[in-house]
Amino acid sequence: MNLIFFVMTTSSIVLMIYKSPELVLSSMINGASSAVTLAIRLLAIYSVWIAIMRIIEKSGLDKKIAKLLSPIVKRLFKGESEEAQASISMNFSANMLGIGSVATPLGIQAIERMDKGKIYASHNIILFVVINCTSLELLPSTILGMRASMGSLNPADIILPTLLSSLISTICGVSLCFLARRFNKNKE
Question: What does the pLDDT look like over 42-57, one tens digit per residue?
Answer without folding.
Answer: 788 778 777 877 787 7
